[in-house]
Design brief:
With 181 residues, the protein is an all-alpha fold. It is built from seven helices and no strands.
């Protein structure tokens, strides 16, 4: 096993975690010998520690993501199973209700009521011809016009009742008295 401190430094600065693992960064025991003999006095061990911590954090995040994905898939499977069970139970209950109604000889009261309502609505819409609808609209428009005219006449009457407010007021201004000295 050989460690290449200069390459490990380059890849740790570049945050190339795949290359760091390829060059066996995990085998470094962080003894500090490489930093001691470095002619440039580069703190190599500090870079390696930071890179190792980043790799551990990345692995931890990947593990957490994998666990979250597994939980999510398990939850979706559980919800789907519950939905299918609920659907099957509802179908069984509906079949049992229908069978009980058939055995008792009772008719479906809700369906009968709905059909009566639909028939009544169809009958009401069929009774009014287009001309009658137009005549009703014109009558309502005429009533609205009459109301507006009545409202306008009422407003005009109010102005006539108070004519003294409409007349201009006349004031006579006199200059103030002056004092003689």
């Amino acid at each position: 096993m050989t460690l290449l401190p200069q390459q490990l430094l380059w890849y740790s600065k570049a945050k190339d975690h795949d290359k760091l693992q390829e060059y066996n960064l995990a085998d470094c025991i962080e003894c500090g010998a490489c930093a001691y003999v470095c002619p440039s006095e580069i703190p190599l061990v500090q870079y390696y520690r930071i890179a190792k911590a980043d790799i551990r954090e990345q692995q931890r995040e990947a593990l957490k993501a994998e666990q979250a994905k597994a939980r999510f898939e398990a939850r979706n499977a559980r919800l789907e199973a519950e939905k299918q069970a609920r659907l099957a139970r509802n179908q069984q209950l509906a079949a049992a209700r229908e069978q009980a109604q058939q055995q008792s000889g009772a008719t479906n009261a809700v369906a009968d009521a709905l059909s009566r309502i639909k028939a009544k609505q169809a009958e009401q819409t069929a009774e009014k011809p287009r001309e009658q609808i137009l005549a009703e609209r014109e009558l309502k428009k005429q009533q609205a016009r009459d109301y507006q005219a009545q409202k306008a006449a009422s407003a005009k009457h109010k102005l006539c009742v108070l004519p003294f407010l409409a007349a201009p007021l006349k004031f006579q201004l006199t200059p103030p008295p002056t004092e003689d000295r």
